Structures
1.
Amino acid sequence: MTSRRIFLKSSALAIFGIGAIPGWLSRSVYAGDVYGKRRKKILVAIFQRGAVDGLNMVVPFGEPRYYQLRPSIAIPKPDGTSASAVDLDGFFGLHPSLASLKPMFDARRLAIVDAVGSPDPTRSHFDAQDYMESGTPGLKATSDGWMNRALLKAPGAVSPLRAVSLGSGLSRTLRGGNDAIALNNLNDFQVRDQKSAATFESMYDHSLDTVLHGTGRETFSAVKIMQSIQKQSYTPANGAKYPGGKFGQNLQQIARLIKADVGIEVAFAEVGGWDTHVNEARQLDNNLLDFGQSLAALYQDLGDRMEDVTVVTMSEFGRTVRENGDRGTDHGHANVMFVMGGDVQGGKIYGDWPGLADDSQLYEGRDLNLTTDFRDVLGELVAKHMGNPNLNAVFPGYKNPKFRGVLA
Amino acid sequence: MNHRLFVGVLALALPGLSSSPKSVKPPKTDQLFQKKLGKDQQMLHALDRLTFGPRPGDVERLKKIGLKKWIDQQLHPERIKENALLEAQLLPLESLRMTPLETVQHYPPPQLIKAIANGKQPLPDDPILRATVERLIARYKARKGLESDTNTADLEPVRPLDEVLDSWELQTLAAGTPDRKRELLEAMPAGKMEAMLIAMPRPQRQQLFNAAPTGVRRSILLLNAPQQVVSYDLLESKLLRAIESNHQLAEELDDFWFNHFNVFYEKGADRFLIPEYERDVIRPNVLGKFRDLLEATAKSPAMLFYLDNFQSVRPDLDANNKNKKVKRGLNENYGRELMELHTLGVNGGYTQQDVTEVARCFTGWTILEPRKGGGFFFNDKLHDKGEKVVLGHVIPAGGGMDDGEKVLDILATHPSTARFISKELAQRFVADNPPGALVEKMAQTFLATGGDIREVMKTMLDSKEFWSQGAYRAKLKTPFEMVASSVRALGADVTDAWALANQVGNLGEPLYRKQEPTGYSNLNSEWVNSAALLNRLNFALQLAKNGVVGVKVDTRRFGNNPEMVAKTLMYRSASPQTRAAINKALLDQKQKTPALVAGLVIGSPDFQRR
């Protein structure tokens, strides 16, 4: 009998797209996934760039030392006032600006994973983002992103809009062998002169310039689909109101693409402004309000479609447990992730809380310790939600992911 | 002994350089870096890489001067006379020449408005500025509820517009073509212009913005939001210089070094510190000694503010002071980025401990009144006097400002820095993956000359790798290069560049607005994605059709023969694929206009390379 090991190796090749894989093989690899029988599941990843202060996002108000170490920026214990934490389980509470997410938590559609992050010790934004997006902490040479690798090799033609990165650049998370497009504004996604559009399409389609040929092909097939969406005006459903900022608008565009049924499978959006070295409180108040209301609007707008969608949030590392001299916090270690969606086992805070009681509980005596690897969370989503069992290929070098049971 | 140590470090740092056995065939790209360019290719390559793209006639001019002499001139910009037209165009951009203090006074931020409102500062004399400030004060007071009788009506101008302008003028401004509006504005005496702008309600003023010449545009901004004038001047000058300066290599290097020592315009005080930063810190040093450039950035208020060092103090300062509710302390941000991004590179061999020690060395490097435009200031009282160990070097206790200077010495002469800077330059000017041997040669020059940037550039420009097929057209144009090179190739007349600067942003890299200290990537893969590609194509068509405000293009002189147009705009034939697509388009379209052909060439894959 062909050993299981060899079989797994071949399927790893299939996902990397190395060489032509016969149809029967790619079919049998995903035998568990019945094509055409179910609607495609959609994964939305959100990156909070700049290292959000997870300890003020999900407040460990049951931890007395939290208040000692953050005399001027700690969020008060839940007391019913609008400045205090929103109680979740008697120990943790949401930042008051995230109150809009409480209904989802109560409806068990929002799960929180705490003390989670990348095991790499770097405190460089650049490196830590790079590692989290490539899915290979400590390895700079990885050229593609975990979310691109997570896409299943589909039999037959795939939608050019299966992987969409919101913003003017294609995010690192979505770079790689599978087609992925960057989308700044859905309505602007076109060559404004129709006739020249065809000319450019032919130029780029036939070009021998490998970089531009590839980008051109992705671009023009996406343009065609986008034209049909552009013709219809969009009103969010169920009274959802997206905040006017870039992030909220990007989530609205994701909802629009999902509802248009154009074959989107993964989407990526980012939101910045979390590097709160100085005067943290005011910045977090504003940014978390925008963040929470945007997520809540997406949830509301998608309504029943949320059954097919999982949204996951992440940030490159956490921030120091102690506040610094400028009423801010510096670069730290473990952080918090949100998972929201129809098949989420929500209403619960996952992970092992390492404690803040004394410095020996802290990472390097200063930061929240890490008890869950971010790949445990993403791996579970890739395997259970996207139906891609081949985590060795999605997170190469990560041997034994420990699923936390965030998904049913 | 030192030499040996250095070679060892380099060999370690450059995997694959010393270790590839002779029996193994080098990969294809390595062979390409051994293949020489022909004479004509060399000329084009020099213009592609060392300028923002050739203009009509540039190749002929270069041939006349000779390649060697031309390069030597570009390496010594002080020997080339600057374009007088450019200098005249930069003249109205007054904030470029101001000190930060003057900038604050002329383009007041909200804090200054508050101070004037509270009588702590006098009202300005300039009529436009005075009107602005009076209105901003009224708004401020209304918001604060200081004067109960202030209602919004008082914020609007007292003098009606029809007292300032006659009916014909009003008609032109309301319904005239952009050209007619512009003619009217250009002919208007300064006093009348001021009265008109002050009399206009804000939305009407905003509508004038597109059609207005630079001087009027600055006045409009000044009336609406004074600080925006500073941004306007910066963007305007960046584009004008890239397009029109005779010091092309220096302008490329200005872009390179500003990006290397990136600061972000939208961060607080940096809104009025950046003009000085680019003018006095970056530009004088682009071909100078790296150590000077490094120190200038370290002491610049713009960098001190951007990376928070201005408020980093010795850890014990407030720690035990019970009267201080807010305790100041050490901030590691600058210490880390100084090593990771400015000097050693992330794999340059430093630890978290080094980051903390470097941060301690720079405590007390601060700004005198940072929000009022004060300069660099060393505050000994804030300085950590303890002993520090940086990368194995002991910095003894009791030091002052010299602790930071010593760190800069250590970093500026470190082999990792030599290699990191050389590799970045080679990535910008040669190829995404420059040959290791070239980087090593450049790094050795860096170390041997005490970090002389001009000499490092010379080593690169003398190398066979620079003049090789591996480098030829190996780079895609950055958004900035794409915009500037299109305008240059078309020989367009730029009266104002503000709309062009917006295009650079649309293409994915807004100028002065990269938030992260990394700056924009030097690598091709970062520049072209689907959204940005569509914007490149749209820009190409719009520019050639004369649709970009402030830029006049006359494509008629290029004709509508695709082959001729390609040769004029790119100095080379279009690829067969591009040619075929354009020819097909011209068969189908009744309007085979020169503008269409030029737009298609500018948007072609061929033109995206340099």
Note: Residues 1-24, 147-154 of chain B have pLDDT under 50 and may be disordered.
2.
Amino acid sequence: MSTTISRHPDIASLMSYVAGSLPEPLAAGVSAHVSMCTECRRRLRDMELIGAELFRASPALRARKIEITVPDLEQDGGAREKPVPHANRAAEKLPEPIARKYGLAFDTIPWRPIGEGAWHYRLPLSPGVEGDLRLFKFAPGYKFQLHGHGGAEFTLVIDGAFSDATGVYRRGDAQDLDDETQHQPIVDEDLGCVCLIACDRPLES
Amino acid sequence: MLEPSFVDLLDRGQSKAWGRMSDLLGKIATERSGDAFRRLFEQYGPRLVAYMMRQGADAATAEELAQETLLTVWSKAALYSSDKGTPTTWIFTIARNLRIDALRKTVCWQELSDELAETIPSDDVAPDHAASARERQERVQAVLGTLPAEQRDVITLAFIDGMSQSEIAAQLTLPLGTVKSRLRLAYEKVRNALEDLR
């Protein structure tokens, strides 16, 4: 599933993600990539060790004086059922975290047109969270205008491919851009492209 | 004088404490031992409260979240196994997830790695064996001890204070790119230190 993924999120994004301090839309994007990418899951495991070590050793947290009440335990509360696997998960093309959180399936995304050869579906974020999280579908050969970004923009290819000056992006590949990058992607001429795009600021369209 | 906690023993590199903490979790999982839970609570409770307050919780909320963290440990202890990491790593990830939900009032996009493993078909290589979880954590401890202060400050603000990259940049009056590169550099050192344990 993950053997062909060659483009990963910025290491800095993964670090903030593990720290729990990546803004929500970008965290959603990273989470979706990670669900498809063995290599990044390995990186996250190393990064969790950093978090645990800081948590353990940080002088700021070494406060012995805090009194805390031990809550009552329900003796039966420990029985935990394993999550029931989704029936068609292996066949589901949408990244698992997105499919599960939004109850969506790749084949039945309620696309809405936004201009010639482009469709989108907006994924709601938590109330008050800034940014934008959307699924996009582009027709084969769709050309973007050269554009920059008012903030961070994270793109994950779910189906098909696109390319720009930095190369080709296929299923599972992530493009993690900061606010200084301009680019002009072109969608694959045969396959078209379905992707998840996350921004830490609202998009214009 | 207070008895040194397990966590403090770990600070002093007394690695026996790892085993004792895993034993506590084992007792919680298999015997549902309330006594083991209370001991775990004494070890981690204060630190969790301090962590939550550092992340912006008031004292009451911080205590609630610390309790919730350890109650999650109680109910999920059966899922813990030492080959997945040290108890501290596991408890830290639970605490982090709870605080994203509660303090930021945003959806938490993190998975506990054991839940991830259960819900995603994966070809991951299991992270070695039980003994190496401890060794890995000790290596990370050594690396972080030698990190330049400027890198350590940035990762501390990210992990302990829960600041986004832009917030860190503003706090330290640094360009965003510098914050990113310090996060990358810190990780590279850790990665190199763990390389031969794969």
Note: Residues 11-63+95-199 of chain A form a domain with the Jelly Rolls fold (CATH 2.60.120.10).
